[in-house]
Amino acid sequence: MQAQQVLKPFVDSPRLSAIKENLQQCIGTENYYQPFLGLKYTDGVKMLADDAECHWLISDLGIAAKLEFSHIPFQLWKLRVKDKIGLLTMQEDTDAPILYEQKYEYTEFPEGEIELYVFDDIILLPSEY
Predict the structure, then answer these.
(1) Residue 102: which residues within 8 A CB-CB, separation 6 or more?
(2) Nearest 5°: phi and psi at 50?
(3) What does the pLDDT average to over 86-104?
(4) Are 127 and 27 in contact (CB under 8 A)?
(5) Residue 36: band (very low, low, confident or very high) from pLDDT cuts 50, 70, 90
(6) What confidence tens digit (pLDDT) does each residue in 58-77 have?
(7) Domains and CATH numbers, the chain
(8) Is residue 52 helix, strand or coil?
(9) Which stretches within 8-124 are classed as H helix?
């Protein structure tokens, strides 16, 4: 599957829909988590990483954001998964060009799309912004 096919819109799996519904309660954070490498992240991002078993995503995103894009204050990150193939992208805003792409040949992340923001060197959910 080509990267462009993964970018096409599609429906979230029931598992990802349930995870996203659960994440809607996250409208702020009480804690910030600091991994050994990468950026701090919020309670909601921790919940996502735990529920979707995707701590690798937080690590990959955090390291790329810190090393390659620290000069960009607001970053929109999207992970799209279809047929167990994932594509992580970053852009400065919704209609801006994609500045970063990382393809995953295989992932257990639920099929669908999830968005995360990086703002002031913190990874957060859109509902926590």
Answers:
(1) 60, 64, 87, 88, 89
(2) -70, -50
(3) 95
(4) yes
(5) confident
(6) 999 999 999 999 999 999 99
(7) 3-128 (3.10.450.150)
(8) coil
(9) 14-23, 43-51, 55-68
Could you tell me if 77 and 118 are in contact, meaning their C-beta atoms sit under 8 angstroms apart?
yes
- Does an H or E element contain 42, and which? strand 40-42
Largest CA distance in the chain: 40
Please give the helix or strand (H or E) that residue 79 lies within, else none.
strand 74-82
Asked if 110 and 52 count as a contact pair (C-beta separation under 8 A), the reply is yes
* Length in residues, the chain: 129
Burial of 86 (0-12, 13-18, 19+ CB in 10 A): buried
CA distance 117 to 129: 8
Q: How far apart are CA 50 and CA 73, in angstroms?
A: 26
Q: How far apart are CA 46 and CA 55, in angstroms?
A: 8
Q: Please report where in the chains the tokens 């390291």 appear, as a residue.
A: 63
Mean pLDDT for the stretch of residues 90-101: 94
Quote the percentage of the chain above a pLDDT of 70: 92
